[in-house]
Specification:
The structure is a homotetramer of 435-residue chains. The first copy, chain A, is built from 16 helices and 14 strands. The first copy, chain A, is an alpha/beta fold and 435 residues long. The first copy, chain A, has 2 domains: 11-373, Divalent-metal-dependent TIM barrel enzymes (TIM Barrel), CATH 3.20.20.150; 377-432, no CATH class. In chain A, the strands form 4 sheets. In chain A, strands 5-6-7-8-10-12-13-14 form an 8-stranded parallel β-barrel, surrounded by 4 helices. In chain A, β3 and β4 (35-36) form a beta hairpin. The first copy, chain A, is globular, with a radius of gyration of 24 Å. The relative contact order of chain A is 0.11. Chains in contact: A-B, A-C, A-D, B-C, B-D, C-D. The interface between C and D is large, with 93 and 93 residues. Chains A, B, C, D: Keywords: Carbohydrate metabolism, Cytoplasm, Isomerase, Magnesium, Metal-binding, Xylose metabolism. Chains A, B, C, D: InterPro entries: Xyl_isomerase-like_sf, Xyl_isomerase-like_TIM-brl, Xylose_isom_bac, Xylose_isomerase. Chains A, B, C, D: Mg(2+) 2 binds at residues 266, 269, 305, 307. Chains A, B, C, D: Homotetramer.
């Protein structure tokens, strides 16, 4: 069945195109810095925002008009899969991501849920082959159901821990079945509502136990894909354990998970934690932990997760620069964890919204690549830190100095000149790349 | 010389006292939970806020009226020391803290600064003996001088690194000379103004090198006091490396500093990072890294460091509960990194401000101790997590389960009942302790 | 039908009561400053949080266990009314508030909705008589339905304006029928998602037209109750027109609505706007516009509306002081626009949560009354502003001075002494009232 | 005397120029939409940031290298005036702004300050003629000196009110003498540190009295320039009375000041109040109160005033669109209330920083003009609100409807279709204008 008969394949038509249903910056097979844009960007569509979101918010019910509702839940579920692959195909996007609950009905028992998942993943597997699409990552939704009100791996109730373990085992099985490139953990309820009634130590220990079980199981079945933690500071919980990249890395290292766990960095979550997107990417990158990204945008005046489609070309250019410096994201990619505004009610908006996000990243890739080709930022850094390339600086970096030797040096070199950084000039020069 | 002839010793007069120059809650030698209040709280006064602050802010010059200005810088410096110990004595506070630049003029060369420090620490040492006062910690100010505009250990200029090393060597020497209980690092400029021109990896590596030099030197001279990092997220820098407790711990562990480095947690800094004070204390405590605290308060509507004297008895009670659970802070303590409002211009306010902070902590200690005696929170936790004391929960905690075994369990236990946490009731019951 | 057979009437048992189902501070008929606590506080329960909320949040479905679901929507609707008055009665609370959609099913047409409202308000009217309860205010929900996605009175679609007008006419009719004391407007969607596509001028003009129609109609039917605007800065919209008290007052005065419109001030909304609750109350009070309050609490680290039950006795004491200075709220009152945490799943929590809020306000009333009896704050103000009671200050206040006369004065009085405010001392003395 | 001998006049060299000391977008005499860029933008330099700032911040002393320090204060003051006009001239900027204290030493008495102002304004008047430069606005600094610790017009001390009146009289005299286009009030300390000790009503009444005196005096001397209030929400005060545009307008209208008072809107202050810059401009514009703007940028993660030079071309384009819709700012203009980063220590940065800001506005003007020429946003609005152009919508706007008539209409038109806003598409199309 097809659902978007009025939409044709979205093609690259160049900057000056007036056709809303075209790419103005994304030319999938164009080569930039030795790789095609497709390979650089590895775009993915999110099943939840694309297929199951309805435009509801805490103060309003759904608004989106969709034509894939069937007579039964099962029929709706299948129609969604049809529509999703039609979109992927027409958008020329190679990857997708989903939660278990996005693709299958949970039924009345865990067994029933598993059966539904089996049926739907058979269907999806066929479609992946038919359309030549790949699974960037899947995950288990362990935050929507009431049982998870106090967390999953960090629940105070051991039965909930067990239930979550079952969901994740199934998720890893599905990852193997669909040949997923990564497996993601977003700990939506792993955190606390109030510190007062929280056994913080036990909860974090349990979360680590949970992750080690996941490692053990994936090793056992021979599906050693990267596991990705997605940091978020707050909402729905008052405080979430994976607050930001640094906090998640602290946890990963403390519990010796670093060989298998990397990070899935999200723009909106960075903002909520008081950081820029590029900061979180840098922290992950410098710790060899930049796994994948969730692309979206937050208006910084707002204190909750809005998951807007990205459009800020200045900051996305800095983000793309981090990705280039990371030598790309592969096996990770760029997943649009972005939802249409509640007022974008038309099915067309699914296409228009994703085009806006894709072109924002494509334009930013072009800008970042040019910055790199010009060595614009590299030259600034080289000059700025040159004192560490020789003399006392080199000796410090090589570990040859001590407080005593440096005191001797400082007593003789205590009149220090400070060079200007000219930051105002640098920032506006970056703007010049955003053409 | 004395400077507060109108002020008598501040004494405990009980709750109903109408005398502003009395303690209404702090009774130093009263025993609570087996320790004197004095031992529990280990209060310290900060030399900078008490002696050198002048009431200036970014939009205004100094307002405080002080009578210790002499005819020369040296005379003023000495008068300050006299006045400071007079205050410590009249307040009945046992400890103090200072930056190097608080106590001595920096002169025109590093050598001159060192000479001035030697002279002033001789004087302070004598006063410590005379008044029976102790040094909680000292530190080096590596953020005020222009040379530190780009950081100290994380400066792009190796000569600045060397200068900072010399200051810290001297600081550790002073700590030994004055028998300090801890040594603190607040990395005021260790961070970035813009990520664009920052070599994040090199800067953090250098910061670690710096700290290892400090460890090596203190080992060498046989003065192995705890080194404390004080987290702060931003201001003056756009982003500071020691963003919060979790981030600082991530750094400490990554660079293998955990044996000697702990945290000095500040209330206002917690707020600026989007946390509660008790959260930061919990994170530190659960990682065996709660070293000491900087006591102050932030109005949460404000986005900069206001260092208000603490008065929020609800949150300070939760903070004191963390401290009791930590079995106290010793060898750390509670340092009032708190400054008078710009409008509190009178010398009397030095006393009134500190009394307000001390009584806030003393009242909160009384409340927290009662909560502990009643096992009020302990009982809540015991009941809430009881599923991990036996059965499947116990088996999880003991490491005996796997995703497969838990899947089997979950398939048989998939109807889970969620008990209420009754949080509203718990919170208002805590209020009942704040009498 | 009764729904809480295990709950007895909640009675005042005094501070030391260990019975969770008792008031420890609220003694309804106890007289304070010449009025009963009941008259001072005029507590109301909110139909929506109490009866229709289910514990869902943006990331999770409902969690609350409720026993009033019937076989049909109509039966459920009626059961809710039964349960609600049982709660009001057992809590000994005199007032209640509701949205139209809380009490009646919207059916498939506007006429059907009106018919359902007629039927349910007949039932509610009988119950009000039976239980001796009063309607503090009702309102129309003009934000949940998809038609309101772009606002109600400020929608870009005139048909939506008309629909909203019909809902408000019915709301005012219901207010008259049930003898309501006030009528409230919370403009949930009156604002913009993006300024780019917004005709700001037309939308605000339309909102004013809408309010004038409401005035005209209420005049016509002889039901001239106060109309109350409830400010909120953001969420669900990016920016809401009634941002805060000052903004709403600006609108009210610009459009000449001040004779009939006052404000309903909410604690959580104050926080989201960057203000304290007491600030918003002061702004309203000083403009003769303090109509009523929505009582709840926001953890200030969180950037969305959490509607927590109030427990912060320091700030609620300052709020109650504003209310005392306003000579009370009558015909307004204190409505608990407060919801149980998602983890407070038990029906008992309905009682425990409201007891916590009621006792917080009762305890704070006691503290504020004592502050007033002692003239504690009044004396501070009198002394602080005494320069305006005589001399040049009096002459300024009386409008007798000009820039020229004051220049003459200033040239002769240019050495000005600044007295300390002693704020640290004042704040901790307020704490002393919170016993 | 000249101070920038190595800097030549800054000229427009077009987008592709690699010369840092050139304009790439600002071509002063180029005509856009019928006006020269010079007339559109009316750029001004701020005396304070340009001449008196030293790079200090709350945690650090000054860092800027400047060559205009003389042997005496008077000589330095005069050198600054020389240097300032050299910069204005080399930058080809037509306007400037200053505080009284920026240009003259305050001496030891008010009379001495006035004498110094007379001398310096004689000098400046000559220079204005010599260089053909104009005064956009001047203002009185009533926040730095200790006397203003509790405010100026809102001080609790009537002598301070008088002193402030004298400063403002002198400021208006200077405005007349130098033929200023506007006169500005930024109420740096007009607000409260704590609501507890504040007589809010008296303080606001006094502020209004103060402004009426200013109107009366300017009328009397025949210098009826616009008076501009500059909103800012907080810092240095906990809460400032001119919180944002809406709050300032509420005050202006309440006290009947609207005929002479407009607003000076600042970008950074908008952010601190939780608004976008374009929002504040819209509020001012729709109330016929957009007087002038202070151009700068805030990184939205930061909670204090950073006054960064603007570089965000997306938001400045929206700001310029508001200015075009306002038919320009004349007699207001665009003043760079922007300071160099503390690390931009070189005198060259004065030029580089201002070039970055000027080119950002120039590029944004080009983008906004193109949006306007294409009617891009106008068409969106026309279509979106078309329901108010005829039928029931027209009738509503014309004031012909009532709740009753609309109820009748709604009962017959209760099935309402909601059109998509396609916001994602609109936003990314705006990006396409930023070339």
């Amino acid at each position: 069945m097809t659902f978007f008969n009025n939409i044709k394949e979205i093609k690259y038509e160049g900057k000056d195109s007036k056709n809303p249903f075209s790419y103005r910056y994304y030319s999938p097979n164009e080569v930039i810095l030795g790789k095609s844009m497709r390979e650089h960007l590895r775009f993915a569509l999110a099943y939840w925002h694309t297929m199951t979101a309805d435009g509801s918010d805490p103060f309003g019910v759904g608004t989106y008009k969709r034509n894939w509702f069937g007579r039964t839940t099962k029929e709706t579920t299948k129609n969604r899969a049809d529509a999703f692959f039609e979109i992927l195909s027409k958008m020329n996007v190679d990857f997708f991501c989903f939660h278990d609950v996005d693709i299958a009905d949970q039924g009345n028992s865990l067994q029933e849920f598993f059966d539904n998942l089996d049926e739907m993943t058979d269907i999806i597997k066929d479609k992946m082959k038919e359309y030549d699409k790949k699974l960037l990552w899947n995950t288990a939704n362990m935050f929507t159901h009431p049982r998870y009100v106090n967390g999953a791996a960090t629940s105070n109730n051991a039965d909930v821990f067990a239930y979550a373990a079952a969901q994740v085992k199934k998720g890893i099985d599905i990852s193997k079945k669909l040949n997923g490139d990564n497996y993601v953990f977003w700990g939506g309820r792993e955190g606390y509502e109030s510190l007062i009634n929280t056994n913080y130590g036990l909860e974090l220990d349990n979360m680590a136990r949970f992750f080690h079980m996941a490692i053990d199981y994936s090793d056992k079945i021979g599906h050693k894909v990267p596991f990705l933690i997605e940091p978020k500071p707050k909402e729905p919980m008052t405080h979430q354990y994976d607050f930001d990249a640094a906090t998640a890395l602290s946890f990963i290292n403390k519990y010796d998970l670093q060989d298998r766990f990397k990070l899935n960095i999200e723009g909106n979550h960075a903002s909520l934690a008081g950081h820029t997107f590029e900061h979180e990417l840098r922290v992950a990158r410098e710790n060899n932990a930049l796994g994948s990204i969730d692309a979206n945008h937050a208006e910084c005046q707002l204190g909750w997760d809005t998951d807007e489609f990205p459009y800020d070309i200045f900051h996305i250019t800095l983000a793309m620069y981090e990705i280039l410096e990371n030598d790309g994201l592969n096996p990770g990619g760029i997943n649009f964890d972005a939802k249409l505004r509640r007022t974008s009610t038309s099915p067309d908006d699914i296409f228009l919204g994703h085009i806006s996000g894709i072109d924002t990243f494509a334009r930013s890739l072009r800008a970042a690549a040019k910055i790199k080709e010009d060595n614009f930022l590299e030259n600034i850094l080289d000059k700025r830190y040159e004192s560490y390339d020789s003399g006392i600086g080199k000796s410090i970096v090589e570990g040859k100095e001590s407080l005593e030797s440096l005191t001797k040096y400082a007593l003789e070199h205590d009149q220090i000149n400070v060079e200007s950084n000219h930051l105002e000039y640098i920032k506006v020069r970056i703007n010049d790349y955003l053409v």
